[in-house]
Each structure stands twice: as structure tokens, then as C-alpha cells.
Design a protein that fits this description.
Helix content: 10-25%
Largest sheet: 7 strands, mixed
CATH superfamily: Vaccinia Virus protein VP39
CATH topology: Rossmann fold
Order of helices and strands: EHEEHEHEHEEHEEEEHEE
Radius of gyration: 17 Å
Distance between the termini: 30 Å
Strand order of the largest sheet: 6-5-4-7-8-13-12
Length: 232
């Protein structure tokens, strides 16, 4: 399914909120950034992997494209999307005005390093795309996820074994320097811990996700990535 904005669209207001990371189809042309996140293959894979979910907690909504795409699934009744940066939430809220079914979405500002997720209730599934490797302590985030759901979809970078030069508790990996507040693709802290693949799988199992499937694994310009289906 391809999403396109039809009819009148306040392009000047859109551009005033820029620069954008996400791209959108509007009136036969592409506007915004370079990343077509609303048609992201990861969201399509999520929909195929968990076709029966009704409530979703999204960690790291960025500019709202993933939430808008999920909102078009008839079975999904509620989406809570947490995002660190207020200016990204402003963009997400703006774009949600121009797509159907977005009344299902609540965009909420939250620091995932500090926020307790159980305050938002339980969910059929947690969507965690591009977040785990931005955590200074990914152990704590997985623990919080495990406390509110039995299913989770994760896309994350990981540290190659030969590059693992540090430990975080019992887990191997390396430290990565994060950007600052002006970088919408950076974490909340000054650095983050990239775990090895085996450490990620061990962490998930240790927090109760006994049924973990590697859906995809491959290279990426910043380092290799995993796509995981997690269940209890």
C-alpha cells in the first residue's frame, strides 16, 4: 500500500517545520527528506508478523510515518507513540492531520532512558525500530518492554564480535558516541552501548522473551542490523 497526500496541503507550513528526514508523496511529487518511512519495509514486515495486534506502543516515533502507516490497519485500535524530541512530535502531529484513522495515535514526549513504560498500560505488541542501539543501558529498556507486553518487534544495529571491546554487566559490545539535541536521530545520552548479536539474544531471553526469531540480518552503512520477532 502506497500512501499519498491528496487535495489541499499547506506546503509552506510543511516547509517551515523542516528540515525533514521523512519523505511524502503529495500531488504527484515527493516532498520532505530522503527517507520513505511511511512505506518502510520494516513496518510492512511488522504487519505481516503480527497481523492480529490491536494495541501498539511505538518507541521512537520520529516524524510519525510509522504510526501513520500502522493506523491504516483496521484491526489496530490504539497506538501510543513515544518520542524524545518535541520538534519531532510537532512534525508528527502536523502530518497526522492529512491521513485517515490517525485519531488512533497518541504522540507523547518521553525519554526512554528515564520513562517507566508501565504508566501507559499493557500492549499487544511493542514496536522498537532504531532505538535499542541508542540506549546507554539497553538492558533496562528491554526489561521495561518485557513488563508491558508478550510480543515485540525490534530492528537494531549490533556490534560485530571482533569489534566488541567493552562489557555492560554480562553483555559484550562497544560504546558509541551520540549526537546532541539538534540531531533527531541521536539518543538522549552522550553515548550508547551497542551489544553483540549474541548479547542481544541472551538479554531478550533473560527478560522472558524465550521465542525469538531473526527475521532478517544484514549490512548497513553504520554497522550490521538485526530484525527480530520476539515472543514469550
Amino acid at each position: 500500500m502506497t500512501f499519498s497526500i491528496e487535495g489541499d496541503f499547506p506546503l509552506e507550513e510543511f516547509e517551515s517545520l523542516g528540515p525533514w528526514i521523512s519523505s511524502f508523496e503529495c500531488g504527484g511529487r515527493t516532498i520532505g527528506g530522503d527517507a520513505d518511512l511511511i512505506n518502510d519495509w520494516r513496518i510492512q514486515l511488522f504487519k505481516e508478523t503480527f497481523p492480529d495486534v490491536r494495541t501498539v506502543l511505538e518507541l521512537g516515533s520520529l516524524e510519525g510515518s510509522h504510526s501513520i502507516s500502522m493506523a491504516q490497519v483496521p484491526k489496530i485500535e490504539r497506538i501510543v507513540s513515544l518520542e524524545l524530541r518535541d520538534y519531532s512530535i510537532e512534525k508528527a502531529s502536523f502530518m497526522s492531520r492529512f491521513f485517515k484513522n490517525t485519531e488512533k495515535i497518541d504522540f507523547i514526549q518521553a525519554d526512554l532512558e528515564e520513562e517507566e513504560l508501565d504508566k501507559f498500560g499493557r500492549f499487544d505488541c511493542v514496536l522498537c525500530i532504531g532505538v535499542l542501539y541508542h540506549m546507554k543501558d539497553p538492558r533496562r529498556l528491554v526489561e521495561k518492554i518485557a513488563g508491558i507486553t508478550d510480543r515485540c518487534f525490534i530492528w537494531t544495529h549490533f556490534c560485530e564480535e571482533e569489534k566488541a571491546d567493552s562489557t555492560l554487566g554480562n553483555y559484550r559490545g562497544r560504546w558509541w558516541e551520540e549526537g546532541d539535541w539538534s540531531d533527531p536521530l541521536s539518543g538522549a545520552k552522550d553515548r550508547s552501548f551497542w551489544m553483540t548479536k549474541d548479547s542481544i539474544l541472551d538479554l531478550l531471553k533473560g527478560k522472558g522473551f524465550e521465542d525469538v526469531e531473526v527475521l532478517r540480518e544484514g549490512p548497513h552503512r553504520w554497522g550490521p542490523v538485526l530484525t527480530l520477532r520476539c515472543g514469550k
